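protien #1 (seq + structre)
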Amino acid sequence: MFTIAGVLVVVGLAMGVPSMVAGWSVLGGLLNLERHDVPGSFSVDIDEPGDYTIFVLSGSQQQTGFVTTSNSFTVEIEDVGVTSPSGAVLTTFPVFNTYIQLENEQFSSAVSFEADAVGRYDIVLDTDPATVAVVSKSLAFPRLGLILLGVASGLTVLSGLVVGLIAFFRRREERSSRSIASDGSW
């Protein structure tokens, strides 16, 4: 039983360490986001295809249909244009209730787009009044996967500890009953 407990703990830790490293890389990417003054246009270099989110500086956010309303402005789908390195205009999608905190400032998700190739993407963002925008790899799916892996890891380690405790108390009980049987004092 101690072997099973040990295997469960080792497997749980083996799952947990990569999820912590991956989680750090996702969150670490947020520390190096380039800020862009908007309204206006800017370019971002994307080195990994995938889903990306454009965040705008705000204090609070409210969602109504396909409209993101910040404490002082609204970003609508038609206010954002994204052009791929090949010159294709990409479709943007609303993103609901995703926030990031950078240097004591709250950024709210505005829209997302899918970058299908590595390269320079041109973004036009029409906001009123002026604010700051950042572009980040989308956080929803990586976060969900890391959370699920972390939960599975924690449950595996916990199972190993429970099995270990059961094995410990059973062995202790067996020794105690052997000791009483060999004494003959019952």
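ok now protien #2
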Amino acid sequence: MAFGDLFDGYCVLHAPFATAHRRPQFERELLRIGVTRFQIVEARRVPPDEPDAAPFKSPAELSLLDAFASAIRLARDSGWGSVAIFEDDVIFRRRFTRRWAQVEDAVRNTPWDVLTLHRWSWKDQITIERLLARTSLVPIRWTLCAHALVIRAQGYDKVLLALTECREAGRPADFFVGRLTRSGGVLLATSHNLAGQTSHLGGSTIQGGETKRRRLRYDFLTRFGSYRSRLEFWAVRAGRGVLRFSRGLTGRAQR
């Protein structure tokens, strides 16, 4: 079964007041992986002086959190047994369909509350994938990004409670996963990062900060937050070391 037919609902969190230019992009991306029906959940513009925004670093964090909660309430009120939720800067692996086919049976038959198509444990713990391994499901307790999630009906209230706790604490929506797993919720991830972001490692969904392609900057890493093999990891590390060394030489020469 195609990814676009497997779940009851599909939602995109979109902020037309800030990121209207992203709509053609996410429509193309969703169509590419077989999602032809989806609901757009519009984020609201949060004024900087709104009292509820005070605990947050930016009003954009509250805007995204509230949109996330709205998408889950939509799924619950619609009676959907599952919902896939994407932020509007989402992108998918080039071989997404093949990778998804490897894990689809496990997704159907394994108990979980939330499934993420992306895992990034911490800023200095970027996922290193196994190049030749099939995509599988792995249990995790934490991820820094929540731009491509699937939630089953039994997880709706658990996630809403975790989001409420984040709202009260002034934490971004991404932090709900830690609260979810601490309270007994089951969080699984695909072993390969199947989804990334145009603004990964450098921008906000609501603020519209796309990552720009830069010379000598590794584009797959910045967009998908993972290395495709250990060889790739060491190659990137070596390249960065050479770059730092050359900059050091240039700096000394200019003194």
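The two ends are 63 Å apart (CA to CA).
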